[in-house]
Design a protein that fits this description.
Elements: E1 4-8, H1 12-24, E2 28-32, H2 35-44, E3 49-53, H3 61-71, E4 76-81, H4 89-98, E5 103-106, H5 111-121
Helix pairs in contact: 2-3
Length: 125
């Protein structure tokens, strides 16, 4: 039985790249363009892993992580960020860890390392 991953990123190129890489590794993968859409998808589909960007329009990754905490969801979480206006990605990724992200990656990232982290989180190694 393959694991189901939800990729939450407003950049279609990054989301599609992640989807292709996860599917090539044997995962089922879906894409949401922002946090609210991701929450709606989670109401219908169960996911084992969520890979979320931090900076997105409307409902960003930190707010999405806050909502996941309120829901007491069990999905493993990987957060990724390229940074914001005045702060580098490490500041936002530290906040993501505090909100429940098990692993974090700065953009640009190595897809092989991200996949390895996903497999480790899901005990697939």
């Amino acid at each position: 039985m393959s694991k189901h991953v939800l990729i939450v990123d407003d950049d279609p190129a990054i989301a599609e790249l992640l989807k292709l890489n996860f599917e090539a590794a044997g995962f089922n993968a879906d894409i949401a363009g922002e946090g609210q859409a991701a929450l709606r998808m989670m109401d219908v589909t169960g996911y084992d892993l969520i890979v979320t960007d931090i900076f997105m329009p409307q409902f960003d990754g930190l707010e999405f992580l806050r909502m996941l905490r309120k829901r007491k969801s069990n999905e493993k979480i990987i957060a990724m960020s390229g940074g914001g206006a005045n702060l580098g990605p490490s500041s936002f990724l530290e906040l993501a860890r505090l909100l429940g992200a098990a692993k974090t990656f700065e953009k640009p990232f190595d897809c092989r390392k991200l996949l390895a982290a996903a497999k480790q989180l899901l005990a697939l190694d």
